[in-house]
Amino acid sequence: MTELLLQYYRNRFTRYFQNQKLAKLITVFLFLSIFGALSVGIYFFVRGGLLFTVNTPYFKDVLPLFLYEMFLLIIGFLVILSASITALYSLFKRENNEWVIASPRFHTVPTYTAYRVFLSSLWPFVLIALPTLLAMNTVFGIGLWNIIVALVAILFFVAFLVFGTMFTIIIIAYILSKIKISKKSVLSFSRLAATCLILVTLLAAFSWNQALGGDIIALFQADDLTQEIATIGPIAERFKVFPSDPLATLLFQIQTKSNESTLALLGEIVALLIISMLLFTWSKKFYLSLWQKLQENSFVAKSRTTGRVPKSSFIRFFKSPLSAIYTKEWLIMTRNIRNAMWLFFLMMLLFIQTGLNFVMGKNIAVHQLNIELFPSIVQILQYATIAYFISAFVIRFALPSFSTERKTAWILASAPIDIAKMFWSKFWFFNIIFLVLGFATLFVNFFFLHLNIGSAGFLFFLSSISIIFITTLGLSLGAIFPNFNTDDPQVIATSFPGLIFISLSLSYGALGAYLFNVTLIKGVLFPLFSFMVISLLVIAFMLYISPRSLHHTEFVRKFTR
């Protein structure tokens, strides 16, 4: 049965290129180009960092080990969170699962889901790991064999995370199904999702406290000036409780060419993978009954009462047809459990970045360091962080917003408003939300880092223009090239307009950060001023053509002619 499922999806992939072959080949080429450009950027970034450690003898051991531990811990946590969201919907909410569930091979669904989640979780690791290993080979000459061993270890580690996450979800669902209140099981999809997210949050809190709690300066022994080189003992002791520690230690040993325990560390990772696979295989026996319970409604019939139920409505700040569209956008964004879970995922990324700034600011205050020694790089990182995180929010929520209208197009077409106003409602809705989010993040980060008001004001102004530009770019591409074949944001993000947005937003953020760096280092304002003026002109151009394009889109012609 699993082979038939895989054959079915192979055939789907083949049929994808049968129509509009040139456009789809261009889309694939664009995707590979973005993938390659990111890999090249990661390679040079990692190589520069490793060369810095080589030229700084005191940190040449502790800093790489700490970075390996932190990188694998953070990425591993994000894999768990992403796998939880994907697995929840693939196991219990995926359409067209019924024909497999009705067969004697129903356990194929969790098996196939595990393969699918593994592949979707693996490629970000490979995107970062492969250029990192190549950079390590350039700096340290680790050799082809060690690169292969490291890639195999990473593959096994990701598989361990995925199978462990799948096992945990099924067991949580089983436990909830056994808990009853008034003879009724508490199991529901929303409660299952909420429980999983709570556990992930607790895991994040524990990991954060264990990895970054306490004095980071003391962790590197930077307060002891009598030592010629920092030892790795404190870092190894702090991170040994995490399952990512064997992989981080393996990478460190490959770097230092002390390979005496490499096979033992690889064996630890393999053992973790085998245990997680056995637990997942055992838990599959509960899947059928859990799937059936989660397909049932929880409606309970009650006798009619004579009491009046007070009328209620969603809070609206002004009454108009346009206000109803604002309300619709907010409800779509918050009431959809999947949207809420991905919003939680992106917010966790922001919390991680803000938390790192909090740790930095705390250590600066404790050791009375002078923040003015490195203000430019701090401000550039704040700008780049805002630009790229807003891009992530836009591609998940704003860019697909026109494509998701395919199910409600008849309502919008029959509403007493000009169809172009739908664009303006989305424009104000998303810009206000993302500006508030960006400003809140900048304010908190500046407060933690104790930067001066003048620097904050300039960065706020630059970030405002960039947020509006990125949001308008996503909305414009979504309006001009809507996709009415699917409303899945993940599919839309990898379509032609999605890839165009990714490439343009990444380039825009990189250019803005570079020009901002030129202004801070050399004091030359004209390039950055030109960048902001051109951004405003492009925003005006997109606002001119995008609303007009809606009069020519497919769903307008379909429902208004």
- Compute the number of strand runs: 2
Structural class: mainly alpha
Measured as a percent range, the helix fraction is: over 70%
Q: Give the uncertain stretches in residue-range form.
A: 297-301, 557-561
The number of helical segments is 22
Mean pLDDT: 77
SSE order and pairing:
Layout: H1 2-16, H2 21-54, H3 62-92, H4 98-101, H5 108-140, H6 144-178, E1 180-181, E2 184-185, H7 189-212, H8 216-219, H9 233-239, H10 245-256, H11 262-283, H12 287-295, H13 321-335, H14 337-366, H15 375-398, H16 409-414, H17 421-449, H18 453-480, H19 489-493, H20 496-522, H21 526-549, H22 554-560
Antiparallel strand pairs: 1-2
Keywords:
561 residues; mainly alpha; 2 domains; two-stranded antiparallel ribbon; 22 helices; 2 strands; 76% helix
Quick structural overview:
The chain has 561 residues and is mainly α.
Explain this structure.
76% of the residues lie in helices and 1% in strands. By secondary structure, the chain is mainly α. It has 2 domains: 32-293, no CATH class; 318-550, no CATH class. The protein has a two-stranded antiparallel sheet. The protein is globular and about 75 Å long.
